Amino acid sequence: MTTTYTPDDPAYLDESDLRVELERVFDLCHGCRLGFDLCPSFPTLFDLVDADDGDVSALTAADQDRVVDECYQCKHCYPKCPYVPPHEWQLDFPRLMMRAHGITEEGS
Ligand code: SF4
Asked: Could you give the angle at which helices 15-32 and 93-107 cross, rounded to 10 degrees?
């Protein structure tokens, strides 16, 4: 499990760990689609994955970053998501986007 939502975690700023976690979470979101009408990030994600025949692993880093860039941290997806902790999938989309923003902006 690569869920890393706390900045104290040594892997928090590890981009390769982040990319694996983005792929895991994007795959779960693509399968569920509850967030389809909440913001631009989810429709972009679903369009990108659908264009690759549902294969989330085909998304490039630039594709992932586009989804991240379109998140404006409203947090509306958190209460709607059925997979937030204590669910075993430990999904926290806003925190993951915050982590990704920190890494991709730091690297640019
Ligand atoms: S927190 Fe980000 S991903 Fe979640 S609904 Fe708001 S803008 Fe979309």
From this structure: 140
Report the residue among 22, 30, 76, 92 best suited for mutation to probe ligand 1: largest number of ligand atoms under 8 A from its CB. 76
Q: Where are the domains of the chain?
A: 15-107
Torsion over CA of 20, 15, 5 and 74, rounded to 10 degrees?
-90
pLDDT tens-digit map of 85-106? 999 999 999 999 999 999 987 6
Output the residue whose Cα is nearest ligand 1's atom 8: 39
Q: Which protein residue's CA is at the shortest distance from atom 6 of ligand 1?
A: 74
> What's the CA-to-centroid distance between 33 and ligand 1, angstroms?
13
Query: Which pTM was predicted?
Result: 0.93
Pick the closest to residue 25 from 79, 84, 86, 106 (CA basis).
84
Q: Ligand 1, atom 2: nearest CA belongs to which residue?
A: 71
Tell whether the model's pLDDT for residue 108 goes beyond 60. Answer: no
